[in-house]
């Protein structure tokens, strides 16, 4: 059987940044995200007569770290199913890979969904989320529609997974994704997190403060308090990036355009627009706004010098199977 699954990327409003355990990929901080409708990874698994899996990423045979991560991830399914089958993994993103647009989130969520079927396993959504987390922490959240919550791991044996959060029915959010650069990121999120944990004097307080941000954001989601949700979201991203700046040697994912857009968002807010920025392990700026203001705001961002692309995302669907074909 040839199995195809698709998953969407998600962007965290309250960020996950730090691992309690690297091998198990246990998050040191909880996170709250929004799955987006416009960025997808589509992954097909084709059984092959070979001793190892092969990866074709965006139309090109991939080796090195990317292929190794996929093989290690499929090993989890092979062990569980006790089936020594290998696959050609054909994975395509409809957006730039490894640049802070959460391609690992959609990538591992789609792969988990496809592998569950290909190995004849029967993981629940929570089970899939837990296993997707082993591929990439943020992937655990892309299993679900709309808003998803993943708690921090309490200890080394806590097998964390995400779950869907139902927001207040009147919370009409959009996320404007502003692409600021072409290049793939120089420092992977895993490397960045470990460096912060090892060297940043801000890391401890980042982890300690986190539960309060998460609880307040969840309260805001449920009570349709958009302003509080936006404020916490900006606060969370700025604190996360501050741990990077304070690490030794310090590093940052911001480009000059990132800062320009942060200023723009603050300026627009001073003029009455309801919009809040968030950035991940890359230069792009994502702006949380009300649905009714999204088009007008997107036009303003499109007109900023240097902006490559602007997309208005709505809350998107969770990971799903797309097709099964007998070869
Ligand atoms: O799970 P990873 O390795 O994609 O790390 C995600 C880290 C951030 O995107 C910066 C924050 C988050 O919660 O998505």
Key traits:
alpha+beta, 14 strands, globular, single chain, 4-stranded antiparallel sheet, 8-stranded mixed sheet, binds (3R)-3-hydroxy-3-methyl-5-(phosphonooxy)pentanoic acid, about 325 residues
Q: Could you characterize the architecture of this molecule?
A:
By secondary structure, this protein is of the alpha+beta class. α2 packs across α3 and α6 packs antiparallel against α7. The model has no long low-confidence stretch (mean pLDDT 95). The chain is built from 9 helices and 14 strands. Strands 1, 4, 5, 6, 7, 8, 9 and 14 form an 8-stranded mixed beta sheet that branches. A 4-stranded antiparallel beta sheet has the order 11-12-10-13. Helices cover 38% and strands 27% of the residues. β2 and β3 form a beta hairpin. The site of (3R)-3-hydroxy-3-methyl-5-(phosphonooxy)pentanoic acid has 14 residues, from α2 and α5.
- Rg estimate, integer Å: 19 Å
Q: Note the total helix count.
A: 9
Spatial separation of the terminal alpha carbons:
6 Å
Low-confidence stretches: none
Number of strands: 14
Q: Specify the biggest β-sheet.
A: 8 strands, mixed
Ligand species: (3R)-3-hydroxy-3-methyl-5-(phosphonooxy)pentanoic acid
Query: Rough shape?
Result: globular
Q: How do the SSEs run, as a string of H and E?
A: EEEEEEHEHHHEEEHHHHEEHEE
Structural class: alpha+beta
Overall mean pLDDT stands at: 95
Helical content band: 25-40%
Classify the oligomer: single chain
Fraction of residues in β-strands = 25-35%
